[in-house]
Amino acid sequence: MERRQEGLLQAREFAELAGVTVRALHHYDRIGILRPTHYTEAGYRLYGERDFARLQQIVTLKFIGLSLKQIRALLDARELDLAETLRMQRDVLGARRRQLDAALRAVEEAERAVSEGGPAWGALRKVIEVINMEQNMDWIKKYYTEEQLADLARRGTPEVLEQGQRDWAALLKEVEEAERDGVEPSSERAQRLAARWRELIERFTGGDPGIAESLRKVYADQSNWPADFKRPYTDDAASFISRANAARKQES
Asked: Is pLDDT above 70 for 147?
């Protein structure tokens, strides 16, 4: 009766309520990711409401794709703020849903092309492109915190991402043309290009200095990039913008 008054449940009851196995609870206890609130004198595990909130985070973060080691590090690094954590999970899950929707649309287009007897190569290529895009970018996530990834996921709608790709493609083309034309870094043309470069980075970071620093770390660690990852711009383009920014600082 005392256990009921305190609102604590034994492992079997807690597992049934949460929809997990007792074996999973025992494993989580052993690895330190979910410790029971109390133990009885006989050694039985007793779980409470706070344990349930932590278990919900574990289950959701596992679904998102994090390992138990990553989840433990994340949860141990911060105090439990259930409202904030749920918002973060919603943002990340929303991004994953958009990715799955994009893959589903690509598969449906390929299915229609095949059923109509036409060439399906283009549609099949789109399926591969959509799926590979997500897989090829997973390695970048290690440079960002979960909060930063959630913020990027919330702002990174398909429309925003597609517009960003178009804007970067147009800008890089103009930067490479300016480099070939020998445009002076201090010229008005070069300064306009550098300003657009900074604007696109600002659009990506959302003005968050933490995300800006994480982005800097990504590009500072190019020796550890996957061999099959294609850098979005050439050394010449990066050098041109660097010289333009340096010229701007000298004049200010």
From this structure: yes
